[in-house]
Each structure stands twice: as structure tokens, then as C-alpha cells.
Design goal:
Barwin-like endoglucanases, Expansin_CBD_sf, membrane, 2 domains, six-stranded mixed beta barrel, cell wall, binds 2-acetamido-2-deoxy-beta-D-glucopyranose, Immunoglobulin-like, mainly beta
Amino acid sequence: MASFLQTWSIKPLIMAFLVMNLSKSIAVQIYRPGPWSLAHATFYGDESASATMGGACGYGNLFNNGYGVDTAALSSTLFKNGYACGTCYQIKCVYSPWCYKGSPYATITATNICPPNWSQDSNNGGWCNPPRTHFDMAKPAFMKIAQWKAGIVPVMYRRVPCVKRGGLRFTFQGNGYWLLVYVMNVAGGGDVANMWVKGSRTGWISMSHNWGASYQAFATLGGQALSFKLTSYTSRETIIAWNVAPANWNVGMTYKSWSNFH
Ligand SMILES: *[C@@H]1O[C@H](CO)[C@@H](O)[C@H](O)[C@H]1NC(C)=O
């Protein structure tokens, strides 16, 4: 009886101790700003930024999906095959008479690629050709740092944590046997290194990077509630978003979670 009591009373303590240490070791690896570097910036579209819809990251309608007008297309050097999708930057104009006084910065999220154009010289129009680091900003974002008449300006930029309201959002494509998920509204580092899906009748299934901010699993997941586990590319933090989608989930739908990176 005594040993039973002892085991019984000590178990919660051990559990609490383990949980405390576990949460300490995975504790909030907060992403901090990187160093400033030199690049250039141009703009595209008009003041409404309607031309920013449907970029290579797959975010679709940027207004509905929480990105607003403060977005940019990155040259392939910065885009990193889509791993830069969702990362955030402060950008300020430098060394140009077109810069606004006091070098105000715009904070943008990477939502698209600015592809190379090899029929243009890298120093004359081919601004996005490798190895150039270039931001083709939505016009409203560009207008926060310089007069748009400038066309192109030198800038200083740095990676910063993404400040997002609410939890991760998951937009579904595919079918009952192939799930393609676009991950949006990612806070912290803003990027995703690895992703897993778990149906209510499966274990964790590793998803592969498709393109942009999309991840896929070839598995039978129809009719099951779905949870997701994600690791941040930048901070390596892992989080789980439990029961994001109900058993009657559908493609074309966006499901919101309560979880997000720090
Ligand atoms: C690439 O540059 C050429 C020359 O300026 C231009 O005619 C063409 O439209 C550009 N291609 C793209 C895809 O922008």
C-alpha cells in the first residue's frame, strides 16, 4: 500500500519536472533581426497593389490572407527556391536623392519570385538576375521609402521576425489521397523547413516541399480530422497545430489554427 501511494504521489511530480525541462529545452527560440546588407529595389504594379495577387509562393489573394500591400518579389538569389516565402524584411532607401529623409523603412513579407531576364543586362534592367540581391516591391511598400519616380534605388535590408496576427493558416489543395497545403500567416522566422500531417487514424506523415510555401503528402487522409507539425527553417522551433481541419475538410478551403511561431 505504501509503495503504491509513493508511486502514485511521485508520478505527477516526475511528470511536472519532465514537462518543465522539456519546455525549457524547446523554449521559445525567438527569431531576432539579422544584419543589414546592401541590395536594390524597384516596384511593380500600382497603388492598389492588385498586381501582387497570386505570386509564386501560392498565397493567392494577399489581402484575404493577411499579407496586405507590404509585400515584395525576391530575386532568385534571395528567393531560395521558395524557402524564403513568408520571410520578412525591413528595407530602407540609401545613397539616392530619391530616398525619403530620415531613411524610413518598409517592412515587407516575401510572397513572390522576381525571375531573371537574361535578355537584359544585370546592370541595366536585369535587376533580378543572379547573383543580384533585389526586391521588386509592391508599389505602396516602395512609396514608404522613396519617390516612385526613382524607378530603382539602392537599399539596405535585414531579415526581421514576422509579426502576424493570429495563428497559422492552411489552404488545402489536392484530393483525398494527395494533400497539398499552403502554409500562411507564419510568424517568427516566417519560413517552414519541415512539415508533417496527422490524420485522426494515422501517425505523423512527413510532407515534402512542393513549391513556394506548399507542402504535400501522398496519403489517404479524406474523412479524417487533420493536425500539423511544423519546424521553422530559421529558428528550428517545432510546433504542433492540433485538429486544424475537421473530418469533413475540403480542398479550396483555408483552415486557421491557434498556434504560431515566436
Ligand atoms: C525580358 O527583357 C526583354 C528586353 O527588355 C523584354 O522584351 C521582355 O519582355 C522581358 N521578359 C520578361 C519575361 O519580362
